[in-house]
Design brief:
alpha+beta; eight-stranded mixed sheet; 18 helices
Length: 552
């Protein structure tokens, strides 16, 4: 066994929350060691792959676009969306309140001090649709980082490397933790296995061959090991009945190493895991034609114009429109008996309204190219989107509806779609365009969205008839359930201290990021407002890093 190494703070996980925690602890002069089971190529974790969206309240970007936001409105939206209703939601609710206050206050300036900047058009993600008292964002709050996920991670990697050069920070990659060490009731270190060296590219599955074992001691341990989205068995085991039956088929929005191992390991020493049935998976997943990890899926961030049909060709009911209510749509789909749905749209809609989630799917924003980014206003679709239309297994492009339906049926085990059913639904929708008003609620929502300048510029196509050949060709996209985020997790107080079943802190142990439900064991409650995952990693990592530093 490798000899023990004493440090002040030991962090399990080299993702965003771990890096932020390390930055805070080293800033306090503490000696920090960061462990990760993956090779160094994965430094930054899941955040690297993200679109870089961050939730801010009453920002200058919002105000410039005429958006009137304030902390009271944001907190009302958060509570209506979260639906806190359990005794164990006390700490998650406090975390949520603290996070909204931070998002309306110090967050933007704190991030700007570290070099993070934002795309000027604020996105309106997860806008609800069930009324003013229902879930969803009342106003646009999704601020895309200039540089996307890598742009979010970069400042904290820089801080880590600076601390490393000063001798305050060390990394040990390919170190997989199997056990937290307890001494007189306190967590004092870790035991685990050293995996063989790997040159696997970022996100690619790495070897699990063990070459040695290790034990390390520390004054405090912070768990920042992420969620369960890459472990479909664990996702299905925790799947709640309120979302229908667990999908028989899913694709993965995160690499395979997002496996949830540290949840059980932390439970084994007395840490309490709460809200395991709360999770956040998307319904607009497409298979990556150029996959990096197993079952690699990409999420479409859709505008509001595409018609959404279930597997049998029934239009999804209001307010389950594209981009409105993620979990409401997921529950509806799972109760149909099928795990997939369809978007039906036109060339004009896809070029204007489809964005693909992920840093690698947005080279203009990721590479900070102003010239390329201006192309989003002109339309035409990004090169990655055009590649999916050409090569993606889930895309059907035809010049007539009969041909489109035949192509859609060819992609599924059974030909479930009926031409007459789809044609009647689309014609009824197109008929509503004869006037600038009408009874189709999706068209009403679309017209409302276009009153917001940001949506009109880059996120919504001008309303038009789908069956008019001038707007073609017609397109259909088969959509899969794609795993993404864990909303429950390790129960923590506002300092990130892991709590036991009695609600008392487990000495020496902290948690942050997705493994802690982004704070408290579930600060999002049942549903999230978007842009709150990366921010939750930063906020909880900051709190845990500061508290752990003060613990030793």
């Amino acid at each position: 066994m490798q000899t023990s190494l004493l440090c002040d703070v030991l962090i399990i996980g080299a993702g965003l929350s771990g890096l932020v925690a390390a930055a805070e602890a080293t800033a306090a002069g503490k000696k920090v060691l960061v462990l990760d089971q993956e090779p160094e190529q994965n430094l930054g974790g899941q955040a690297f792959w993200s679109f870089g969206g961050l939730f801010l309240v009453n920002s200058p970007e919002q105000r410039r676009l005429g958006i009137r936001d304030n902390v009271d409105l944001a907190w009302h939206d958060w509570q209506a969306t979260a639906g806190f209703d359990r005794p164990e939601d006390a700490w998650p609710r406090r975390w949520a309140d603290a996070y909204v206050q931070w998002a309306a206050g110090e967050k933007r300036s704190w991030l700007r001090e570290r070099g993070i900047r934002f795309f000027p058009i604020v996105g309106w993600a997860e806008r609800g649709g069930a009324g003013a008292s229902g879930s969803g964002n009342s106003v646009p709050r999704f601020h895309v980082t200039w540089g996307t996920g890598p742009g979010v991670v970069a400042p904290f990697i820089t801080q880590a490397r600076t601390a490393e050069a000063k001798g305050l920070l060390g990394f040990k990659f390919r170190h997989r933790v199997n056990e937290l060490v307890l001494t007189n009731g306190a967590v004092t270190g870790v035991r685990g296995e050293i995996l063989e060296a790997s040159d696997a590219a970022r996100g690619v599955s790495s070897s699990r061959t063990v070459v040695s074992d290790f034990e390390l001691s520390a004054g405090a341990v912070i768990v920042t090991a992420g969620g369960i989205g890459g472990n479909h068995e664990l996702v299905r085991r925790n799947w709640p009945a309120r979302l229908g039956a667990a999908p028989a088929h899913m694709i993965s929005g995160v690499p395979a190493h997002v496996d949830g191992r540290m949840l059980g390991i932390t439970e084994a020493v007395g840490g309490q895991l709460i809200n395991s049935d709360r999770m956040w998976h998307y319904t607009e997943g497409i298979q990556n034609w150029n996959p990096i990890w197993p079952m690699h899926g990409i999420r479409i961030l859709p505008g509001p114009s595409s018609l959404w049909f279930d597997a049998r060709g029934q239009r999804l009911p209001a307010p389950l429109f594209p981009g409105f209510d993620t979990l409401g749509t997921l529950a509806h789909i799972q109760k149909t008996g099928y795990d997939y749905t369809w978007f039906v749209l036109t060339q004009k809609i896809i070029e204007k309204e489809f964005a693909l989630s992920g840093s690698e799917q947005n080279p203009d924003l990721t590479n900070k190219s102003i010239v390329q980014t201006l192309g989003r206003v002109r339309g035409g679709g990004t090169p990655p989107l055009r590649a999916f239309i050409e090569k993606g297994a889930d895309f059907v492009v035809r010049h007539s509806l009969p041909d489109l339906v035949r192509g859609m049926n060819a992609l599924t085990p059974e030909p479930l779609l009926n031409l007459a059913t789809l044609q009647a639904e689309i014609e009824s929708r197109d008929r509503q365009l004869l006037n600038p008003f009408g009874k189709d609620q999706q068209l009403t929502a679309l017209r409302g969205a276009r009153k917001y300048l940001g949506d009109r510029l880059i996120r919504t196509a001008k309303p038009h008839a789908l069956l008019d050949p001038a707007n073609g060709p017609l397109m259909a996209v088969r959509l899969h359930i794609i795993t993404r985020k864990t909303l429950g997790g390790l129960h923590t107080d506002l300092e990130g201290r892991v709590l036991n079943a009695a609600g008392q802190p487990l000495p020496g142990l902290f948690a942050a990021g997705e493994v802690a439900g982004f704070g408290g064991g579930g600060m999002h409650g049942y549903r999230a407002l978007e842009g709150t995952f990366l921010g939750g990693c930063i906020f909880s990592g900051r709190a845990a890093g500061r508290a752990a530093a003060g613990n030793v």
